[in-house]
Amino acid sequence: MKKKLAVLISLTLVFTILAGCGSKSNNSGTSADGVTTIEFWAAPNPTQQAYWQKIAKEYETVNPKVKINVSAIKESPTSEASIQAAIAGGSAPTMTENISRGFAAQLANSKALVPLDTIAGFNDIVTKRNMTKTIEPWEFADGHQYVLPIYSNAMLFGWRTDILKEAGVNEVPRTYSEVIEATKKLKAKYPDKYLWAKPDLADPTSWKRWFDFFMLYNAASDGNKFIEGSNFVGDEKAGVDVLSFVDNLRKEKGLLSQNVTEPFENGVGVFTDIGPWTFSTWAEKYPELQYKKNFEVTLPPVPDGMDPANAKTFADAKGIVIYASASPEQQAAAIEFIKWVYSDDKNDVAFFQETNLPPARDDVGTNEVFKPVFEKTPVLLEYAKAIPNAVPSMDNPKFNELQTFIGQEAFNKVVRGEIDPKTGWDNMKKAIEGELQ
Amino acid sequence: MIEKNNNRLGWLFASPYLIFSTVFFLGPLIWSLYLSFTNWDLISPTYDFVGFKNFTKALGTPGVRSAFWVTYKFMIVFVPIVTAMSLFVAVIVKGLPKLKTVFLIGFFLPYLSSGVVASLIVKGFLSHTSPVQTFLRERLGLDIDWLGGSFSALFVVAMIMAWKFTGYYALILTSGLESIDQEVYEAAAIDGVKDSQRFWKITLPLLYPAIYTTLILSFGATFGIFTEVYQLTGGGPNYATNTWQMEIYSQAFKNLQAGYASAIAIMAAVATFISIFVIRKILEMWGKRNGWV
């Protein structure tokens, strides 16, 4: 009897410990006094985190029945991996910011997201925030909206005009042949400098293609889609043109893909992709870099014969999602919070001022309320003007594999001179089509 | 009665390890085996049973094929380097008149260091604008893209690993050297063995148990390479450093294919088991020749 009791106690202890390890909260997020708690993971960017913390506090003062815990998404090792781990571990937040269209497609495919358009009040947000056109390309293949875009960065290329002028290039090159010509002059004057110095050029990590290949491809193809549904619809001529352009830059010794610290800022390279978030960092770290004085930003260069003034580019746009694992009370409270934030233009102005990220709205370039932001940082106007030219990323749930193939099979190899552009394109196409089957 | 009590005491003392192993090794292993036959994406509440599809798919992908071969390439580079370095350190330390422990601790410290930090330091060291690279370029005319070349990237990772493990293996080898009876050397000297022959004919064969341990550990380490590759090369260039762990991570956490990644993990476990078994047999044959087994 004693023995049986000892075994029973031991087993109870072991299972209690194990059950404790895997316990899952099943509460609705609403306490006995009727306060609903929302867990909101903001982007791991100090300015965005500070903005949301401030806004959440303001909201709590007018809505004491809602408590919003704002924290930054952990990057261990990436924000996407942290979110996936949280969902898999049953500890997903109510909502998160900083979700790209591609990642949202992965999450939506796994039924982890709430279709926002099915929640009452969502359409009011779209109308009041004046973002009807902006949100259109965010519709997913199943006809739902899973992401509310917060900001949209039309990615531009920066040029170190000070160095280019020293090399005898007085106008910023806008077409492929002008860029090659500028590279020749640069190398003649400064053999140890490069046109495009960036370690990511040889890195197959999928998202890195947004900031090199897709910027150039969108410009060369006039915004032609790359993947539509489950089909590869990439424009072969434009794609091969882009790869040939990169190959020609390599042949002129204009590319540097070795590890190098901040090459554009330090003058090792004179051309690179620049997002608007960069300027607040520069203001502190590289105050000598002044718009129009020693650098300029433009839309991507285009193949000869195309109009560079209206070139398309990549839209680095991110938004908010609400998780299916949140309770209905939390989901309702989250949408009410979002509705409150975007019912007042001043909150978007504050976001723009504090983060330099252009709000994802139709009127960011025309609405007078944003004028003070452009007066303070004139370069941001270029980003606002480029918003209509910016093409968002693909919404295929396999975007990670597909974009990795672009690097592995074509772009990275061309950068390293291991393959000719046409063969690279063909290999990439074959790999992507194989994955899509 | 005493025997029964001893048995109970034995189980009691072994229970923390048994519980730990069951929860953190056996359980996940069985779960992983089960997942390898599904198409679970890590976060979806539902998934389907797909039979051996994940395994057949894995066999045809360049990622898995490269993971298989890259591990052996790492072995070819890493194992001789780390063995030679640790043996060198052990022999030098043994010959020191005093402060042996201090030196051994010094060499052991890299083993405790973070792989992330070490990788970032090396990344900075090999940066295009670093003093070393600038010197090589401007003085010697050598412009080497260390992490961009297939062999050089593999070599850099192998060297970081060697730096990390040398002190640990040297510790094992030093204790092996200490256990060799001095009388053997004295007898050999009387028999006319030259100094140059001492190491190869006496020390090395008598060091077999320690060398056997370090070799098994170093061969095994090549199957677990991740941090350095993740930080420095991401498995590239062109899969040249794509290890099993890197491939499993990419499929599970980047591509959200937990079922497929589990299948790769099972394949990696089988490859590891067979390889270590073969290596053990080869080492035992060497030991047998020297009268150890």
Automatic annotation (TrEMBL), chain A:
Q: Where is the signal peptide?
A: 1-19
**A Pfam family per the record:** SBP_bac_8
Instruction: Enumerate the UniProt keywords alphabetically.
Output: Signal
Superkingdom is: Bacteria
Classification via InterPro entries: Bact_solute-bd_prot1 (IPR050490), SBP (IPR006059)
Recorded protein name is: Sugar ABC transporter substrate-binding protein
**Species name:** Paenibacillus etheri
From TrEMBL, chain B:
Q: Which residues form the ABC transmembrane type-1 domain?
A: 68-279
One GO cellular component this record assigns the protein to is: plasma membrane
Identify the main location.
Answer: membrane
Q: Which Gene3D superfamilies match?
A: MetI-like
UniProt-annotated location(s): Cell membrane
Its keywords, alphabetically, are: Cell membrane, Membrane, Transmembrane, Transmembrane helix, Transport
Q: Which InterPro entries match?
A: ABC_transporter_permease, MetI-like, MetI-like_sf
Any GO BP annotation: transmembrane transport
The organism's place on the tree of life at top rank = Bacteria
Residue ranges crossing the lipid bilayer per the database entry: 12-34, 74-93, 102-126, 146-163, 206-226, 258-279
* Record-linked SUPFAM superfamilies: MetI-like (SSF161098)
Q: How does it sit in the membrane?
A: Multi-pass membrane protein
The record's family statement is:
Belongs to the binding-protein-dependent transport system permease family.
PANTHER family recorded: ABC TRANSPORTER PERMEASE PROTEIN (PTHR30193), INNER MEMBRANE ABC TRANSPORTER PERMEASE PROTEIN YCJO (PTHR30193:SF37)
Q: Under which name does UniProt file this protein?
A: Sugar ABC transporter permease
Organism (species): Paenibacillus etheri
